[in-house]
Design brief:
The protein is of the alpha+beta class. It has 2 domains: 37 residues; 112 residues, Glutaredoxin (3-Layer(aba) Sandwich), CATH 3.40.30. A hairpin with a 2-residue loop joins strand 3 and strand 4. Helix 2 packs across helix 6.
Length: 160
């Protein structure tokens, strides 16, 4: 069996396992953590609405990869400080080379290391945007920051 097929099967089995666990936790804790067909399991929380900004990387990290991460964090911290403080936005750095995070590659169709903005409403991922232009803009800090802000705002304003 090919490695890709094995990983796909493993991802499906993991999702089913998590969904079954979520159903148990839901009945036990009387919360609304029901699964969905599209969102990654890690994106399911019980908060009403959260915007999650992911930076996905691997074990091997070049200078440009590290700069994308730094610019992403800096832009979000400077432009969305209020949302970070009140918990309605968060930044997560995720190593997709770790087995527990491999599912993100397929779920967000990651062809390379990337930034993804995800909106979670009532514990379910409602929509997401993969920001492919970060590689083109990484050497222009102002353009990178503007692109990231614009994409986050499009998602927040329901236009993403």
């Amino acid at each position: 069996m090919s490695t890709i097929k094995s990983k796909s099967i493993a991802a499906v089995l993991l999702a089913l396992f998590i969904a079954a666990g979520g159903s148990f936790a839901e009945s036990a804790a009387e919360t609304s953590a029901a699964g969905s067909s599209q969102p990654p399991a890690a994106a399911q929380k019980t908060e009403q609405s959260t915007t999650r900004v992911y930076y996905f990387h691997g074990n091997q990290r070049c200078t440009t990869c590290k700069k994308i991460e730094a610019l992403t964090k800096k832009t979000v911290e400077e432009s969305f400080a209020g949302q970070l403080k009140d918990g309605s936005m968060e930044v997560q750095v995720v190593n997709v080379d770790k087995s527990e995070n491999e599912h993100f590659v397929e779920e967000y169709q990651l062809a390379t290391r990337s930034v993804v903005v995800s909106q979670i409403k009532q514990g379910k991922e409602a929509k997401w945007r993969r920001l492919d232009k970060v590689w083109q803009l990484v050497h222009d800090e102002a353009a990178f920051a503007q692109y990231l802000r614009d994409e986050i705002n499009l998602l927040l304003n329901g236009k993403g």
